[in-house]
Amino acid sequence: MSLALARAPITATDRARGRAADGPLVRLEAVGKTFANGTVALEGLDLAIGRHEFVSLLGPSGCGKSTALRLIAGLARPTRGRIRFEERLERGDVGFVFQEPTLMPWATVHENVRLPLRLQRIARRTAEAPVREALAMVGLAEFADAYPRELSGGMKMRVSIARALVTRPALLLMDEPFAALDEITRLKLNDDLLALWRAQSWTVVFVTHSVYESVYLSTRIVVMAARPGRIVADIPIDAPWPRDENFRTSDLYNTLCREVSAALRRAMAS
Questions:
Q1: Pick the CATH number of 17-89+170-269 from 3.40.50.300, 3.90.1680.10, 3.40.50.1360, 1.20.1050.10
Q2: Residue 104 pLDDT
Q3: DSSP string covering 65-113, please?
Q4: 138-165: per-residue pLDDT in tens?
Q5: How confident is the model over 207-248, as pLDDT tens digits?
Q6: Which pLDDT tens digit goes with each residue over 70-109?
Q7: DSSP characters for the chain?
Q8: pTM
C-alpha cells in the first residue's frame, strides 16, 4: 500500500529545511520537569525547532524524550523554564502520534480519524472533507468503513497518523510510532512519512531509540542523556533528498550512523 501523494521534486526549499530563516517555530528555554515522586526527568533543556525541520530526539530509555514531547504538546507543564511558540501557531496546529495507535475498537476507521474534529464540536458534514483527505494521505481511503480489528499493525498506525493530520497541523509530534512494527513495515512507513513531510511542509519532532531510523528521517538529531534528561549533542544530517534505498546503502549514511552512534554512546556513559 502506497501513499496517494506523489513524491515532490527536489527544490531549493528542501535544501534549506532546518535552517529556519524566519525564526524557530517552538523554543524550549531552560526547561526542567520534576515529577511528584521527586524524579528529575529534564533539566536545563534548551532547544529551538525551526519551521519545516524534521528533528529526531534520540537517547536511552529514561532520558526524557517522551516527556519533552508531551511538554511541547501541552499534555504536561514544565516545572521550570518555559516553552514559547511562534505567534502564528495556534492550538489546533499541533498533532500528536503516540507509540500505540490507541484506536477506539468499536468505531470505524472514519470515526476514529474524525475524533479530534468531533471534540472540537465541528459538524459531521464539515468534517467529512478533512477526514477523507487525511485518509487519502496515508493510503487508507478504501478502508474508511473498516474496524481496527480488521487492520494490520501498520494500517492501525496509519489510522493514528491520519487522526493526527485531520486538523491539518503545522507541527507534528511523534512518540516512537513505528517501534512495535516489523522491520519491513517500519521501513515502508519511514518512506511514506518522509513523502508526506516533503509534500506538506510540516515541522516534525520524532522520538526514537533507533540510530538508523533517525539518520534516515531527520534534518537534525538531538541526542539526549538521562539523570537528568538533557541535550548532549545536536547533529545536522546534511544528506540529499529524496532519501531512498540508495541512501540507506550509501557511504554517507554509514558515516552519519557512526557519528550518531558515537554521540549516543557518549550520552549513555555521561
A1: 3.40.50.300
A2: 95
A3: HHHHHHHHHTSS--SEEEEEE-TT--GGGEEEE-SS----TTS-HHHHH
A4: 999 999 999 999 999 999 999 999 999 9
A5: 999 999 999 999 999 999 998 999 999 999 999 888 999 999
A6: 999 999 999 999 999 887 776 558 899 998 888 999 999 9
A7: ---SSPPPPP-HHHHHTTS-TT-EEEEEEEEEEE-TTS-EEEEEEEEEEETT-EEEEE--TTSSHHHHHHHHHTSS--SEEEEEE-TT--GGGEEEE-SS----TTS-HHHHHHHHHHHTT--HHHHHHHHHHHHHHTT-GGGTT--GGGS-HHHHHHHHHHHHHTT--SEEEEESTTTTS-HHHHHHHHHHHHHHHHHHT-EEEEEES-HHHHHHH-SEEEEEETTTBEEEEEEE----SS--HHHHTSHHHHHHHHHHHHHHHHHHH-
A8: 0.88
